[in-house]
């Protein structure tokens, strides 16, 4: 078999071209002999790695990670879940007690005991509770102070629809995503919380098509004058990046029920899906890069973008941008944007699902267990989860089913009377209508490489998502039609 071609460059050597050349040389050594038979997934070794890492906690040289304790637990628990492993009741209880010690008395969760509340670890703590928690005393779910958390969320809201990630901290679209997921899971959505958020997301889209971390909130044409809030579109702040793009697009998907309930208006925020799709597609590496994803233009492939960028295609499908042929017989879409119509017939051959699986299996797995950015880097829990979740999204077609959404709406206990209740019902049914398309999963290599499907927006399994949402919305979720 001939060797794949090296990436072309213009012979002007820079640090960037050197890193690219070095990476290609290393990745070449990880090319499988048979492209359809990549290295098998070493589930046991990865489980052992995760357990070891969790028990040891962050090594002392990672003191800066002290505020990421909820993340370490979430990465570990969700990696277990996608690999189909559940904790025993004792370990679940230990995890619940640990998480609840991170709750701040004034609402939200901090990055460790006694730490200030922060929107981002709040997401990690609540998702970890979705996996291990339960209703009732000591179960975690009913000990979450939702009133105080809601007050905390409102207190970090800015007039332009952005959220600070914590008091006296910065605006970042990661905060928007984390806050929206938490508010969805815990039934805390209100029009007040969501007002202006779509316009903020829109303002983060860059000329490349991907999203940056934030946008310029204020603009003063007169240097001496008081700063005035700039109307949309505001200039994005910084470079398009896969992490921010996932957070923006997933937030946009979560905002669809809210947008659908708004009165039609000319100023309705919209995204440029044409440039977004083009940018996402260009983030997938070539054959010599084993089909892994990059996080930004002219940077290197990295296993974690398997989820942050690879996961965006399912999100686009829910907006009708990348077509998914569903058993429902209709094209799944909850879109509010006209331009999407023209893009609805593009199928997911736009990205190479098999190649991504090859990157994760051949380059992402560390021989001693755990998954990583790229060889020869060490494994860590963050890359372990996002490689495994990326593997899952490459294996399964998960789409938003209108049939499923209708069934969930039909089983809603009492008809919604206010717009507030309508919003909650719409967000509940929208979030829970993600459905795996039967018979279309594509597992590269041995069947043991199969991951569980994961919710494309929340990155929790459907079972965990349904469990926690049914509890907080006080609804019974209709069972899914039996597989035939
Ligand atoms: C650049 O790192 C990384 C960023 C600028 C931020 C990445 C953001 C995420 C991964 C999203 C996280 C999401 C949540 C919900 C918290 P780098 O310069 O080391 O990497 P690069 O060269 O690949 O850009
Ligand atoms: Zn990474």
Automatic annotation (TrEMBL):
Its cofactor is Zn(2+). One of its GO terms (biological process) is prenylation. Binds 1 zinc ion per subunit. Signal peptide: none annotated. Pfam families: Prenyltrans. Its EC number is 2.5.1.58. Keywords: Metal-binding, Prenyltransferase, Repeat, Transferase, Zinc. The keyword Transferase applies. GO terms for cellular component: protein farnesyltransferase complex. Residues 41-460 form the Prenyltransferase alpha-alpha toroid domain. It catalyses: L-cysteinyl-[protein] + (2E,6E)-farnesyl diphosphate = S-(2E,6E)-farnesyl-L-cysteinyl-[protein] + diphosphate. It is an enzyme of class 2 (transferase). The keyword Repeat applies. GO terms for molecular function: protein farnesyltransferase activity; zinc ion binding. CDD domains: FTase (cd02893). InterPro entries: FTB (IPR026872), PGGT1B-like (IPR045089), Prenyltrans (IPR001330), Terpenoid_cyclase/PrenylTrfase (IPR008930). Residues 7-22 have a biased composition (Basic and acidic residues). Residues 1-23 are annotated as: Disordered. Belongs to the protein prenyltransferase subunit beta family. Catalyzes the transfer of a farnesyl moiety from farnesyl diphosphate to a cysteine at the fourth position from the C-terminus of several proteins. The beta subunit is responsible for peptide-binding. Heterodimer of an alpha and a beta subunit. This is Protein farnesyltransferase subunit beta.
């Amino acid at each position: 078999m001939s060797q794949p071609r090296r990436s072309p460059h213009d012979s002007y050597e820079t640090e960037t071209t050197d890193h690219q050349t070095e990476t290609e040389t290393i990745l070449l050594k990880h090319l499988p002999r048979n492209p359809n038979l990549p290295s098998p997934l070493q589930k046991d070794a990865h489980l052992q790695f995760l357990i070891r890492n969790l028990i040891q906690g962050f090594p002392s040289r990672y003191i800066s990670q002290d505020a990421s304790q909820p993340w370490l637990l979430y990465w570990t628990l969700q990696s277990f879940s996608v690999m189909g492993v559940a904790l025993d009741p004792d370990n679940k209880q230990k995890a619940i007690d640990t998480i609840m010690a991170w709750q701040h008395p004034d609402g939200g969760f901090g990055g460790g005991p006694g730490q200030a509340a922060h929107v981002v670890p709040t997401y990690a703590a609540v998702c970890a509770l979705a996996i291990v928690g339960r209703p009732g005393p000591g179960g975690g779910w009913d000990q979450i102070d939702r009133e105080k958390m809601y007050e905390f969320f409102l207190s970090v809201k800015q007039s332009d629809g952005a959220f600070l990630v914590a008091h006296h901290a910065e605006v970042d679209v990661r905060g928007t995503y984390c806050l929206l997921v938490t508010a969805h899971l815990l039934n805390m959505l209100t029009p007040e919380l969501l007002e202006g958020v779509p316009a903020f997301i829109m303002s983060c889209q860059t000329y490349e098509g991907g999203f940056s971390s934030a946008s310029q909130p204020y603009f003063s044409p007169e240097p001496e004058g008081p700063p005035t809030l700039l109307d949309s579109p505001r200039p994005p702040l910084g470079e398009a990046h896969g992490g921010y793009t996932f957070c923006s697009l997933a937030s946009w998907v979560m905002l669809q029920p809210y947008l659908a309930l708004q009165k039609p208006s000319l100023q309705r925020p919209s995204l440029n899906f044409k440039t977004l799709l083009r940018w996402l597609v260009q983030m997938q590496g070539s054959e010599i890069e084993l089909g892994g994803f990059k996080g930004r233009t002219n940077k290197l492939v990295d296993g974690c973008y398997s989820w942050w960028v690879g996961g965006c295609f399912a999100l686009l499908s829910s907006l009708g941008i990348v077509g998914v042929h569903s058993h429902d017989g209709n094209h799944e879409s909850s879109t509010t944007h006209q331009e999407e119509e023209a893009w609805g017939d593009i199928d997911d051959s736009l990205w190479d699902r098999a190649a991504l699986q090859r990157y994760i299996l051949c380059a992402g797995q560390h021989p001693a267990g755990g998954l990583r950015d790229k060889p020869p880097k060490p494994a860590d829990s963050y890359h372990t989860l996002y490689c495994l979740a990326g593997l899952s999204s490459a294996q399964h077609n998960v789409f938003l089913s209108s049939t499923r959404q209708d069934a969930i709406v039909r089983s809603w206990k009492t008809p919604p009377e206010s717009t507030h209740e309508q919003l909650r019902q719409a967000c509940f049914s929208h979030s829970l209508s993600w459905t795996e398309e039967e018979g279309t999963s594509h597992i590269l290599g041995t069947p043991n490489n199969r991951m569980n499907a994961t919710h494309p927006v929340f990155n929790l399994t459907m079972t965990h998502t349904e469990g926690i949402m049914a509890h907080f919305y006080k609804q019974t979720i209709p069972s899914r039609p039996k597989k035939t």
